[in-house]
Write a structure and sequence with these properties.
- This protein is an alpha/beta fold and about 210 residues long.
- Helix content is about 40%, strand content about 15%.
- It contains eight helices and six strands.
- It has helices spanning about 20-25, 55, 85-95, 100, 105-115, 120-140, 160-170, 195-210, and strands spanning about 1-5, 35, 65-70, 80-85, 155, 185-190.
- Helix 2 links the parallel strand 2 (about 35) and strand 3 (about 65-70).
- Helix 6 runs parallel beside helix 8 (about 195-210).
- The chain is globular, with a radius of gyration of 19 Å.
- The structure holds pyridoxal-5'-phosphate (PLP).
- Pyridoxal-5'-phosphate binds near residues 6 and 39.
């Protein structure tokens, strides 16, 4: 049995109850393998968040943690990620991946540089936190419900079909998230720079005046 958990989750942006999750993983039979996708882990503010890496460090070999350079590192186009797991797990994955031929040197050089660039990481996180606050403030003012975000996007409840909102935003050169069935009245808003979010909330407020939201 393979269990795939995305934590923090996409598109909800929320984190699991990590204490519960870790206890559950530990309680499962050895033939249950967990894949923990922590693509958004670097954005988390909630102190209750626990990375699956802790379990790897404790010696558990029935899980692997997936990380990516596509999110806080902003390298999505360069296509690089990595897995953290027990040696036996990583060796098993190696048997199935032609990793030697799938990486290019510029991507590796960029990743190595970014990985150690604490300043860039802190700057990115701070910018994302600021952008989120700008969006939260407007959503609160407009009384638009949303889920507590631990990522670089916020899932908002339009209480109306997504399509017209999507089209109106597109007319303003803003691309909001695609539909995520069954949550068809919800919209995932990716966080841009604080300046971009200021523009976005201006449009939201205009839409409210026009009766569109
Ligand atoms: C949870 C999650 N994992 C992974 C990815 C993509 O990662 P990568 O660009 O490394 O394939 C995404 C991107 O949308 C994601 O939401």
């Amino acid at each position: 049995v393979i269990v795939y958990l995305v934590n923090p989750n996409n598109p909800t942006s929320t984190i699991a109850d990590c204490g519960f999750m870790i206890k559950w993983i530990k309680s499962q039979p050895k033939n249950t393998f967990f894949v923990l996708d922590e693509a958004y882990g670097e954005f988390v503010n909630d102190p209750s968040f626990k990375s699956g890496v802790e379990l790897v460090k404790q010696g558990f070999d029935n899980l692997v943690v997936l990380k990516t350079f596509s999110k806080i590192f902003a390298m999505a186009g360069m296509r690089l990620g990595y897995a953290i797991g027990a040696v036996s797990v990583i060796n098993k994955i190696r048997d199935h991946v032609a990793y030697e031929v799938m990486m290019n040197q510029s991507t590796l050089a960029a990743a190595m540089a970014e990985m150690n660039d604490k300043e860039f990481l802190a700057e990115s996180k701070e910018s994302n936190d600021k952008a989120r606050e700008i969006l939260y403030k407007a959503l609160d003012e407009l009384k638009i419900p949303y889920l507590p975000s631990q990522t670089n996007f916020v899932f908002i409840n339009l209480k109306a079909p997504l399509k017209p909102f999507f089209e109106h935003m597109k007319d303003e050169n803003i691309m909001v998230g695609r539909p995520f069935p069954p949550a068809l009245q919800w919209c995932r808003i990716s966080l841009g720079t604080p300046a971009e979010m200021t523009y976005f909330v201006e449009k939201l407020k205009e839409f409210r005046k026009k009766g569109w939201i």
